[in-house]
Task: structure prediction
Amino acid sequence: MTGYFITGTDTNVGKTYTTCALARRARALDHRVFAFKPIETGCPADPSGHRVGSDQELLAEAAGGWQRGDQRGLYRFLLPAAPLVAAEAEHATIDLDFVVRTALSGSHHDATLTLVEGAGGWRVPITRDADMSTLALALALPVVIVARAGLGTINHTLLTIEAVERDGLSIAAIVLSHRPDDSPEFTRSNRAEILRRWHGSVLILTSDPAALDPLLPRPRST
Result:
């Protein structure tokens, strides 16, 4: 399985926006993409009573709309909280083995790039014994850390880098998700400060997904 596990420094930092941009850009570069968010919370029911995972649907459509059933997402909980908390509110449990099996099965559909998006940050609990790092370790994919571009991102990003590297996974890149009201100068300053402490790849994603090209080599011919 070739691809990335996408995590964030916090919730609402732009993980889904970044994952969708990565999926669309990869397709433009001739990749077949499997984009998968297995667990989503804060999911309301539609008029027929089915839970709607809006992030899950955005990812599947960004990948080309070919994914069906479980490959569009496994768990959808009503409460907008950590997966463990949201699941327990519904007297449910999350089966991590099932998540990993589904990710592997999706990647076997001739996918040249698999993108798995976590919920929240690196230490967000999934079960009583596992958090997002547990899932990432089971998938054994390089990690992309998505962070806010603005105030607070230096501390949150460096702490997340430390946690991921301490857990033994490689970091492919940090992506600063730059929003229209963010200051470009402040974003560039934050990037420079992170690079002063960590010698990896720090990308700035605005509206141009080509910024993510360093993560997307041309796929091998099949």
User: Anything to note?
Assistant: The beta strands are 3-8, 33-36, 39-41, 75-77, 113-121, 143-148, 171-177, 202-205.
